[in-house]
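TL;DR need structure tokens for one chain.
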Amino acid sequence: MALMTILQAFVEKCNQHERLRAMNREWSRTVVIWAEDTGSRYWLRSVAGELQAGQGPPEEEANMEIRADGETLEAVFSGRLTPTEPYNQGDLMVRGSQDDLFRLDVITLMIWGE
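>> reply
TL;DR here they are.
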């Protein structure tokens, strides 16, 4: 499945989660996602608790950056793989503030569980 399709499903699942939307209503961030093996770039944007996804460079400066090969990104954003394992192995690189990293961890836990 294409990464953009997986990101759109992730966004839909997040936006349908009322508790998650309420938790993120004050969190406005843009996350750039790089599939290093293909050079493809995607983005996730959180605005007032709602997520959006797109392909290509975002219109605004990114607050966070996530890099991995496409297969790892697909597995993480589809919930087949928690981000912890590829991150600890060095296969998933995440740059951003500690608060934003923690928030992203909470989002994935609330959507996919452990």
